[in-house]
Write a structure and sequence with these properties.
Helix content is 64%, strand content 12%. By secondary structure, it is of the alpha+beta class.
């Protein structure tokens, strides 16, 4: 019992006891005073009904009735008409306690319904706002994708010609020639640029997922093999946590592998001093959650709102398309990606896919721990 409740109970008890004492101490010939005391009993009864609802109202009225009966029986037995009025008053005490308690109980239930409705409206507004942000993000990405695809296509043709010319030049140069080293640098940079253009085209012209039943375990085994060398080089230990109820998926395994591979490589690169990288799968209600938890330095709040924006990157030499492509793949599977800071250190990215897959290209639920700017 808290202090406030204790004070309310004490107030009701003192009022009832005080009025009862006045009844017993006041001579019976001062009848008007007794009438006032009798009516004053309604005050603690109504207060008890308001504060403690049905139980409080009935409890107070019964307590008043128990204190009034001896007084009526011993002091007013010689005035049967007045005594009868007092017995009727006792009935009214209990009617008042019952009515006040019921009204208070109904008001409390109504208030809870209003609060629940207000909370549901607030949650609906939040979901609507997030859906609007998500749709705005999709429109922005679509427009940017069309422009990027056109530019990438125009640039890719001369890059192919340059790479072909470099290959011809390489054949005619002696490996001891100083120009040979610079030729290798040009080829390396052109290869990196070509990869960037490939990522842009993948992002700008995504392919609809070809969904089919697939094994989460086989997907994870393939991913572990793909990142093993990079993880070993960065002194990162990969651990797999697979819940039995999440071993089966209905998805495009190739696209899903690409999305998770981007997240895994980001996690490995975020742990410059090594650590443990956890790849997990579990069921949450109607979602399958594929998680990647790292032990890196994490990201500041202002960057969390930008990480899924195309070309935004915190890595030197990064294209800024790995996470947007992963996000795009998740949404085309009817899901979404959430990101949150870990309690100790690092970040956790979660690809959340519906157990019953949505229609191709349909956006996932508007529930995300990251807002898109």
């Amino acid at each position: 019992m808290d202090l406030r409740t204790g004070m309310k109970i004490s107030t009701i008890g003192l009022l009832i006891a005080g009025i009862a004492v006045l009844h017993f101490k006041t001579p019976v010939d001062v009848q008007r005073a007794h009438v006032i005391y009798q009516h004053a009993f309604y005050v603690p009864i109504i207060l008890a009904g308001i504060w403690f609802r049905l139980r409080g109202g009935l409890g107070a009225s019964l307590a008043v009735s128990a204190l009034s009966l001896p007084h009526i029986f011993y002091d007013w037995s010689l005035l049967p008409v007045y005594a009868f009025d007092q017995y009727v008053e006792i009935v009214m005490f209990n009617v008042a306690g019952l009515t006040t308690g019921l009204l208070s109980l109904m008001e409390e239930r109504q208030r809870r319904r209003y609060e629940k409705t207000a909370q549901e409206l607030q949650e609906a507004y939040g979901r609507l706002r997030q859906t609007f942000d998500q749709l705005r993000q999709r429109d922005r990405l679509a427009a940017l994708g069309e422009i990027s695809a056109s530019i990438a296509h125009e640039i890719r043709n001369p890059i192919s010609s340059i790479l072909g010319s470099l290959d011809i030049l390489e054949r005619g140069l002696d490996r001891k020639d100083p120009a040979y080293e610079f030729l290798g640098i040009i080829q390396k940079e052109m290869g990196r640029l070509n990869k960037l253009l490939t990522d842009i085209l993948i992002f700008a012209r995504p392919v609809e997922p070809q969904v089919r039943p697939c094994s989460t375990r086989e997907l994870f085994d393939s991913l572990a093999l793909l990142v093993s060398k990079e993880a070993q080089r960065q002194r990162v230990q990969l651990r797999v946590e697979l819940s039995p109820d999440a071993d089966a998926l209905v998805a495009d395994p190739d696209q899903l592998k690409q999305a998770l591979l981007n997240l895994l490589l980001n996690g490995i690169q975020a742990m410059g001093k090594g650590g443990e990288l956890v790849l997990s799968a579990r069921r949450e209600a109607e979602e399958t959650v594929l998680g990647v938890r790292d032990e890196g330095e994490g990201l500041p709040e202002e960057q969390l709102n930008k990480i899924f924006n195309p070309f935004f990157t915190t890595k030197l030499g990064g294209s800024g398309l790995g996470l947007p492509i992963a996000y795009q793949i998740a949404t085309r599977h009817g899901g979404y990606i959430s990101v949150a800071r870990n309690a100790d250190r690092g970040m956790t990215f979660s690809v959340r896919l519906p157990v019953e897959r949505a229609q191709p290209g349909q956006p996932g639920p508007a529930r995300q721990e990251v807002s898109f700017g």
